[in-house]
């Protein structure tokens, strides 16, 4: 088995069209991390334990719109990947209920890359 196929990862996809501040974006990715870990704790505790022991690889990518995030979320769920769709509470920069980030994983890197591999890194 190749390194990439056995390597565990989490990938976060942020909406580029929202133009969030760096702090707001970091908070939204933090929410996605917490939600994915909480879900994995319930559904895949052994995989989560291995992920926590092997470096906790994380990547942040970008997508153009809410529709893109919802599509990626659906693809991940269909593939059996832990996924979280994050909606903002509306206390600061954007209205309540705005979809900001999708978190995927932890899962095998090749499974996540099949869904997110063509996305650009967040810039």
Residue windows where pLDDT falls under 50 for at least 5 positions: none
Q: At the fourth CATH level, what is the homologous superfamily? A: Bit1
| Beta strands, count | 4
Backbone structural class: alpha+beta
Q: State the end-to-end distance.
A: 32 Å
Label the overall shape: globular
Strand order, sheet with most strands: 2-1-4-3
Mind telling me the C-alpha Rg?
14 Å
Summarize the structure.
By secondary structure, the chain is an alpha+beta fold.
Polypeptide structure, described:
This protein is α+β, with helices and mostly antiparallel strands. It has one domain: 3-Layer(aba) Sandwich (Bit1). 46% of the residues lie in helices and 24% in strands. It is built from five helices and four strands, in the order αβααβαββα. The protein has helices at residues 3-6, 22-43, 45-53, 66-78, 109-116; strands at residues 8-15, 58-63, 83-87, 99-108. The longest helix has 22 residues, at 22-43. The protein is globular, with a radius of gyration of 14 Å. The protein starts with a helix and ends in a 7-residue tail after the last helix. The mean pLDDT is 94.
In terms of topology, how is this protein built?
Blueprint: H1 3-6, E1 8-15, H2 22-43, H3 45-53, E2 58-63, H4 66-78, E3 83-87, E4 99-108, H5 109-116
Parallel strand pairs: 1-2
Antiparallel strand pairs: 1-4, 3-4
Helix pairs in contact: 2-3
């Amino acid at each position: 088995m190749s390194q990439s196929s056995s390597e565990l990862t989490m990938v976060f996809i942020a909406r580029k069209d929202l133009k969030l501040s760096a702090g707001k974006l970091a908070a939204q990715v933090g929410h996605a991390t917490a939600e994915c870990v909480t879900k994995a704790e319930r559904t895949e505790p052994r995989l989560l334990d291995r992920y926590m022991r092997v470096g906790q690889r994380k990547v942040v990518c970008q997508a153009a719109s809410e529709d893109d995030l919802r599509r990626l979320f659906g693809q991940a769920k269909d593939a059996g990947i832990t996924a979280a769709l994050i909606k903002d509470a509306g206390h600061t920069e954007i209205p309540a209920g705005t979809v900001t980030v999708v978190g995927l994983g932890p899962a095998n890197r090749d499974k996540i890359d099949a869904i997110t591999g063509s996305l650009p890194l967040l810039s």
